[in-house]
Structures are given as structure tokens and as C-alpha cells.
Amino acid sequence: MRAILLGGGLALLISLIGTRFAISVFTRWGYGQEIRDDGPTSHHTKRGTPTMGGVVIILATVIGYFAAKLITMSMPSASALLLLFLFVGMGLVGFLDDFIKISKQRSLGLRSKAKMVGQTVVGLVFGVLAVSPALEDDRAKTPASLHLSFIRDFDSFALPAVVVIVLIWLIITATSNAVNLTDGLDGLATGACVMVFAAYTLVNIWQNNQSCRISPSGTCYEVRDPLDLAVIAAAITGACFGFLWWNAAPAAIFMGDTGSLALGAALAGFAILTRTELLLVILGGLFLVETLSVMLQVGFFKMSKGRRIFRMAPLHHHFEMLGWEQVTVVIRFWIITGLAVATGLGVFYAEWVAGS
Question: Which of 40, 105, 258, 309 has the greatest number of CB atoms lying within 10 Å of its CB?
């Protein structure tokens, strides 16, 4: 527990101070955000706001985690190192995207195919390692499972390793893009991530306390390294919280694709490593709704030859176009995220109570 508090607290302080430093440096270097010309006109005033703030979130998380492990004199686990690889690796893909936007002075960075290649490489490497027998612990548990899961594994049947790796890639790609789509208003994605990662901190702590390694029972959790995963979840929560101080409206800095792709991938990683893939649909309900709004908009536009369901997608832009203030949209979407997280945690706990 000490490592969890240290990881979260250190990451918060590093992010809070480091983001202020990043704003000064990125402004001096001219690393400003480019804005879509077809977006809401109110966003044009944001052109030139420093971006790539996700670098601070990633560094604060990594430093906070390893500092906590050093202070508590404990070794990093295979699950934690895998998750950090996914987090940093997807952040590098986003960094390339952001850097191209800045250097080319355009609102589009990496081509969609190039971005997908980067996401695929990181996701597949993570998937292969997560189910590799080489990373089994003394109880023959790999970081990821060969079973589908909601709150715990469905033990009726195991999937072939190749199918599991493809599913892992799909979850990572979908979730990283979902957070990326949500990151369109000051503080929206950052605030939502604070709540969802805080939820995974609680989930991991609970799974550790009810671990089959510690207290075998019919309701114990067969999750490898839950306490170490909780340290990373707390560190990301703290890093996002510190960044939100500067990212809240009016934003002094944006996280960019560097942050949104990394955070989305980390969410997917937590769902996979904690055996809660389908629970993520509830906890991350806002990200799901934002993604569905884009899919519906594009699909209906093509089928109806130019007609639209929403005034603009993703969904938060639709409400802006209806005349809602940006702050109003953000706060109400935060409330929706809070309700989704509360529902997800309630379902998680209710499943344990029902089985005990």
C-alpha cells in the first residue's frame, strides 16, 4: 500500500510541476496545436496552444512508479513492466503523430495506415509477451489469460493463443483510438481518465486482497501481480490529476496524441491484465459512446449519401454545435463518466458478494 501512495503522490507532483515547465519550453520551441478548419469556430482561438503534454504524463508515471519501487525496495513485476511497455510504446506512436503535425504545420499527423502500423506493432508485441509461457510465475500464470473475461475468466473454454493475441490487439487499438477521439475539449479526456484509472486502482487493490495466492476461495481472483498494477494505476491517476490543473478550461497545454493514445492503451492493458475486458465497457462508457457516435456518423453519411445523424462527431462537438458552452459539455460528460465508473465498481463488488 505504501508503494501505491508513493507512486500516485510522486507522479502528481512531477506532473503538476513538470507540466508548467513543459508549457514554457514548448511555447519557446513553437510546439503549438493545429486546429481543424471544419471544427467549431470557438476552437480557432486555441491555435498555437502548446501540445504534446502527454510526454509529461508518461514521464511522471514512469518516474513515480520506479521511485516508489526503489523507496519500498521491491522488484517490478512482469505485469507492470509489460503495461509500462504498452503505455510508453503507444505514447511514442502518438509522439510521432504530434511531431509531424507541428513540423508540417497541419492538423493531421501520421497517415492513418502509418499510425495503424505503429499501434499494431506495439499491440502485437504486448499480446505475444502477455501470453508467453516464458513469463509464467510459480503458479503457471501468465500476465494475460487465454480466456474471455468480464470480472473474472469464463472458464468454460480457452481460446487458441493466436486468437487471444488478435483480440488483445483489437482491444488495445480500439481503446487507444477511443480516448484519442474523446480528447477534443479542454480537460475532457484527462478528467475522465482520472476517474477510470482511479477505479482500476481500487479494482487492483481489491483483487490483491482477495487473491487466490493469499486467500484461496470460490470468489478469489486469479490475477497475476494485482498490487504492482495498482501502483501504476495510482501513478497514472496522479499524473493525469496534476496535468488537469493546466489542461482544464481554458487549457494552457494539450496532451496531444502522445497522451491520449498512451492512456487509451494503458486502459486496455489494465482490462487485459486484470481479466476485466468486458467490465471496461462499463467503466469506460464515455469513451465507448464517443467512438460509437463517430462510427454512426460515418456509416450513416455513406449510406444516406451525405446526411448526418449529429451536427458534428465525436459527440462532444455535437453539443457544442447546439450552443452548449465547452465547460458545460465537459462537466456533464465528467458526470456521465462518474456514473459509469460507479456502476462498474458496483457491478464488480456485487459479483463478489453474490459469489461469496
Answer: 258
Would the CA dihedral through 119, 122, 123, 125 be positive or negative? positive
Residues comprising the chain, all counted: 356
Place of cell 509531424: 100
Please give the span between the terminal C-alpha atoms of the chain, in angstroms, as a whole number. 25
pLDDT tier, 166 (very low <50, low <70, confident <90, very high otherwise):
very high
Q: Say which amino acid occupies 46.
A: K
For the whole model, what pTM was predicted?
A: 0.93
C-alpha–C-alpha distance, residues 93 and 147, integer Å: 29
Which residues lie below 8 Å from residue 276, measured CB to CB, with a gap of 6+?
A: 149, 150, 151, 203, 270, 348
The whole-number pLDDT of residue 313 equals 86
What is the number of helices (H) and of strands (E) in the chain? 12, 0
Looking at residue 211, the DSSP 8-state letter turns out to be B
Cell numbers at 323, concatenated: 450552443
**Where do the structural domains in the chain lie, given as residue ranges?**
78-142+153-231+244-355
Instruction: Return all residues near 147 (Cβ < 8 A) that are at least 6 apart.
Output: 153, 154, 155, 157, 158, 159, 275
Q: Could you give the angle at the alpha carbon of 76 between the alpha carbons of 87 and 151, nearest 5°? A: 65
